[in-house]
């Protein structure tokens, strides 16, 4: 209940800030390229489920971000004299 009382105004503020952004109208050739890419994904989804590919990519990126975080923390620990 307390968490909801904190998060509701935060999300309301974020929604208000997003609504301040202007509407972006893309040129027709860019929209055609995007719709062509979507049709390629829909066709490929029949043979190879894109949900699985996106889940695998998300797992790989999460692992890489964890490794980068590990390297940064390790670097900071070795740079601070009283830790290393």
Could you give the topology of this structure?
Blueprint: H1 2-20, H2 28-47, H3 50-79
Q: Mind explaining what this structure looks like?
A:
The chain is mainly alpha-helical. It has helices at residues 2-20, 28-47, 50-79. The longest helix is centred in the last third of the chain and has 30 residues, at 50-79.
Count of beta strands: 0
Sequence stretches where pLDDT stays below 50 over 5 or more residues: none
Which band does the percent of strand residues land in? under 5%
Shape: extended
Note the gap between the termini.
43 Å
How many DSSP helices?
3
The percentage helix is: over 70%
If you average the pLDDT, what whole number results?
A: 88
Order of helices and strands: HHH
Largest sheet: none
Alpha carbon gyration radius: 22 Å
Q: Provide the structure class.
A: mainly alpha
Oligomer: single chain
Task: Summarize the structure in short.
82% of the residues lie in helices and 0% in strands.
Characteristics of this structure?
84 residues, mainly alpha, 82% helix
